Amino acid sequence: AMAPSILITLLVAQLLVPLAAAGGVEKLGLYEYFVYESTPVIFNGKMIMFESIVKNSPEWAGNWLPSFANCTCYYRVRDIIKGVVIVNISETCNHAFGAALVTIDPQRGNLNTFWIFGTPWIRVQDEYARMAYAPGGSPRAAWSGPCAEGNCSVNVFWSSDPSLQDWRSGPGATLKKGLTVYNNDVTFVDASPAQQQAVGLPPHRWVMAIETGQEYSNFLVSNGSASGDPSTGWVALDPSIYVVPKHGHDIGSCPSIRYVPSTGYYYILTGGNTIYILRSKNLKDWDLATNPVLTPSADDCKIAPAFFANYKPSAEAQQHISSCTATGFGDDSDIDLVEWYSPLENATTVLLQYGSGNQQTFGFSNLASYTGSLDEFLASFYP
After folding, report:
1. 83 contact partners, CB below 8 Å, separation of at least 6
2. Partner of 208 for a Cys bridge, out of 161, 220, 287, 379, CB 3.0 to 4.6 A?
């Protein structure tokens, strides 16, 4: 049953955007250059975008904030319609590969809390040059920090401040020594302990999917803190049993996880080249859908309407937009998603955020949409 002090966010926002064609995903277009690992969320009824910012991209190296001079990466939050930055989070210095979610606590006047989970990395400024001009070289060799040294953790940052200016932090999940972790994602699980034990899982309120250095997805579970929030209590499940297999595809990287209580399914959206979807009731036996969620196409190159009104492509970004071909120009990866309600269309819609491009010499942040609820979207891949 739902934990008494935690409710997952009611995903409602007033967005006036075109809806996707019935029964399918519509690519809306790009809205930013070289920003990966982002999450759209609803916070106090407003749609906002969490973003991971990395200094090693050409877009940011020349526009780096002086207050982050000693950081190679950090997190920020933006207004998804206006595009303005709400906050650059100083507490997240030298953290990358982030993911976000929002909880609502009914016992505290429906208090909204914004949660961020991310791994500590140092990503050097010259990495872009290494990727662009040193073919065959390994840009990851230039990365350092705890997660490169085998002392990795998924740290947690949170704020209940309506203005998102006041942040707290904690250690989150300490990982097995020697394990390298990049992307992660967390979902709330509204199921009874009896339901969970029936499928061979320990009782838990939260599940975290992590992308390991081998590009598999493994899992941690938590019953949360004393108040039920996801700030602590994380325990790793056996990675030899609870794992998303590759299935011959680029599966296991960049995971986004959701739980659907009405069916008892956990869903993983994953992939660093094409985005696939899998589902399981026990986090170990996975069913790969026949059709992918997103594949690279020329629609990755158009500008998204009605979002990020202040976005103006830089000269370098415009060059890559102009060079798009009918077959697309790179990968679709790093997906995350949120359900919201459009009063203009009087319909529930899922907004998908993902990355496109080759992730080396260029890349974009993109949006897509689906007409229907999140549960309907996930189930649509399993007719």
Report:
1. 31, 307, 308, 309, 310, 311
2. 220
